[in-house]
TrEMBL record:
Organism listed in the record: Heterocephalus glaber (Naked mole rat)
Gene Ontology terms, MF aspect: ATP binding; protein serine/threonine kinase activity
Similarity remark: Belongs to the protein kinase superfamily. Ser/Thr protein kinase family. GCN2 subfamily.
Lineage: Eukaryota, Metazoa, Chordata, Craniata, Vertebrata
Classification via SMART domains: S_TKc
Matching SUPFAM superfamilies: Protein kinase-like (PK-like)
Domain Protein kinase: 39-365
Keyword list, A-Z: ATP-binding, Kinase, Nucleotide-binding, Nucleus, Serine/threonine-protein kinase, Transferase
Cellular component terms per the entry's GO annotation: cytoplasm; nucleoplasm
EC numbers: 2.7.11.1
Superkingdom, taxonomy of origin: Eukaryota
Protein name: Serine/threonine-protein kinase PDIK1L
Amino acid sequence: MASSQMIAPSPVPPPPRQPGRLRTKETLTLKMVSSQPKYDLIREVGRGSYGVVYEAVIRKTSARVAVKKIRCHAPENVELALREFWALSSIKSQHPNVIHLEECILQKDGMVQKMSHGSNSSLYLQLVETSLKGEIAFDPRSAYYLWFVMDFCDGGDMNEYLLSRKPNRKTNTSFMLQLSSALAFLHKNQIIHRDLKPDNILISQSRLDTSDLEPTLKVADFGLSKVCSASGQNPEEPVSVNKCFLSTACGTDFYMAPEVWEGHYTAKADIFALGIIIWAMLERITFIDTETKKELLGSYVKQGTEIVPVGEALLENPKMELLIPVKKKSMNGRMKQLIKEMLAANPQDRPDAFELELRLVQIAFKDSSWET
Ligand SMILES: Nc1ncnc2c1ncn2[C@@H]1O[C@H](COP(=O)(O)OP(=O)(O)O)[C@@H](O)[C@H]1O
Ligand SMILES: [Mg+2]
């Protein structure tokens, strides 16, 4: 079965597996900056469905960065790019496990402009209009690109990193703690990621040179993310991401919670995706993506000879008992219980990101004190 990234209108029983579009009402503006090249692109390091990612250097400082280039020739691309910009630029402080956006640049033909909140720009408004209407709202002969300048992650993604090494308990524990910390930070900042999966979790190995520290994970690819706005009653009061209901069925099928398939969900969908990732990491459960033929970490349910995403199977049968762990001794009782709760069919039975972080810290602490 293919693991396809999906964005589709909802409710959708049965859900379509082809890309569609998200709709948005957020706004932002652009500022003029110099058209002098600031970055040198070195090599292509990634290519997704919507953009190309390069390793690059800042000319002035020779610092290494990653630059993601999205061509805005289709409304889908514009929408993904704007979502990524809104999420990453809404974060006021940095977190070690969340990719940091240095800047976002809009290029139109030979001109470049820095994207920033708080000012007006007709170019920016054209992009928003394109995204809202679902059709190009500017002269199609112009070439628009959005460039995202971010931290460069030199260690590939979580699939590549883990699957090229033997299973290691210390690495697994470190990755779980880093991921839960990143998710608690995102949810505290009102951001629902909606496409958590090992391909979108990148590895930075730079601090490994002399120490035996585990690598740093960075949650990346915010193209499907949603920033939940303030509650209607009191605009000053931020709404809890666990009460912010979303209706666009989107994500990648193997990591999607049952309620996402139905199109009525909250930030608990991210908890479910992380449950799939952690379960797969601890037990080395993988499947082959039929499109790319790549081996990917992800747990699933077997139905005869077919493998079915856990969320899809739970949607059909919410009472289904998940076989966790699949292998004996791959996790202790507390971990097994936590993963079961993360993958509960009812989102209200899942822990929120803050409880999850706390419980993982407790499990890690107990495990390490037991070892010594
Ligand atoms: N900051 C980065 N550093 C290094 N590689 C990156 C970085 N961002 C993305 N990549 C590479 O590019 C790929 C696609 O990027 P991603 O942001 O996931 O976009 P897409 O929406 O196309 O999936 C990633 O899987 C990764 O291999
Ligand atoms: Mg991606």
